[in-house]
């Protein structure tokens, strides 16, 4: 089953439970957290659950803005009730009835990046401490009898955790809202159709007057024909170039044999001469 239909179904069910809680009058505006019965404490988280569900609905930007507005209302309603019950003692920037809350809103709008980062880190540490405390209480409930005081401590810890969580989600919604507004404005403004592009004819530089105008007459790097065209012009279509023939006449085998005999006889006579005439015998002028 897809998540979005399940979110819609959960919203319907939680709205019915909220209507029942309001009809029963489980909570009063003039009571504190100690006056609320333990069995009724868990119903205080209904606005948080509804806020999370509306915040996670996936839809187009304009509808998403409306869903985030509903989530904001639920988170703020929960935080205001938690403050009335004295679970927290925060001042909220959206409450403009008290002067100190107006000033708090002005201070918040002037927070620097470093201050916002410090606030986020402090909130993260607080959530971590509450999560560890909740785990410890759950372990205590499992290992001992579920006394009303222990169970009440667990519910109050969960309420404090969701106070920090709700403030964090409200900050996230504030950061996401401008982007969604910009996307919604772009989606509502029809885009002007682009004029059709005129197809241009291909321009090919040829080997004629146009080429001369571009490169000048006698430009040495411009080829006048391709290699295939030159080959066809030189040797003709379908013909192969003949290998160059030697212009020197080839000697006959008989002439080569005679030359070999004469050369051999000449070497024999030279060897006989060297045997009878030692080197240096003819030099009689330089004898000592």
From TrEMBL:
List the GO cellular component terms: cytosol
Q: What domain of life is recorded for the organism?
A: Eukaryota
Query: Which Gene Ontology molecular function entries are recorded, alphabetically?
Result: protein phosphatase 2A binding
What biological-process terms (Gene Ontology) are attached?
A: regulation of dephosphorylation; regulation of signal transduction
Q: Where is this region: Disordered?
A: 237-288
Please list the residue ranges that the record marks as compositionally biased, kind Basic residues: 276-288
Instruction: Indicate, by first and last residue, each region the UniProt record lists as having compositional bias (Basic and acidic residues).
Output: 262-275
The record's annotation in Gene3D superfamilies points to: TAP42-like family
State the protein's name: Immunoglobulin-binding protein 1
Q: What's the short name of a Pfam family annotated to this entry?
A: TAP42
Organism encoding this protein: Caenorhabditis auriculariae
């Amino acid at each position: 089953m897809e998540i979005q239909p399940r979110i819609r179904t959960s919203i319907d069910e939680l709205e019915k439970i909220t209507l029942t809680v309001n009809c029963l009058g489980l909570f009063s505006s003039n009571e504190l957290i100690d006056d609320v019965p333990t069995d009724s404490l868990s119903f205080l988280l209904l606005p948080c659950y509804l806020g999370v569900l509306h915040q996670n609905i996936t839809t187009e930007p304009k509808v998403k803005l409306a869903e985030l507005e509903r989530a904001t209302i639920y988170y703020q309603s929960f935080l205001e009730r938690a403050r009335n019950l004295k679970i927290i003692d925060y001042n909220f920037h959206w409450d403009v009835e008290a002067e100190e809350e107006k000033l708090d809103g002005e201070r918040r709008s002037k927070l620097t990046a470093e201050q916002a980062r410090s606030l986020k880190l402090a909130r993260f540490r607080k959530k971590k401490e509450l999560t560890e405390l909740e785990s410890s209480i759950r372990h205590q409930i499992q290992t001992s009898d579920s006394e009303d005081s222990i169970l009440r401590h667990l519910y109050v810890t969960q309420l404090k955790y969701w106070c920090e969580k709700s403030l964090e989600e409200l900050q996230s919604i504030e950061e996401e809202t401008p982007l969604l507004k910009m996307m919604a404005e772009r989606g509502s403004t029809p885009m002007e159709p682009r004029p059709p592009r005129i197809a241009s004819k291909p321009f090919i530089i040829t080997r004629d007057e146009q080429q001369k105008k571009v490169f000048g007459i006698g430009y040495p790097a411009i080829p006048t024909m391709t290699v295939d065209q030159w080959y066809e012009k030189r040797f003709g279509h379908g013909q192969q170039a003949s290998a160059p023939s030697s212009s020197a006449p080839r000697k006959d085998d008989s002439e080569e044999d005679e030359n070999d005999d004469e050369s051999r006889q000449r070497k024999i006579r030279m060897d006989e001469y060297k045997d009878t005439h030692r080197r240096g015998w003819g030099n009689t002028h330089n004898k000592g």
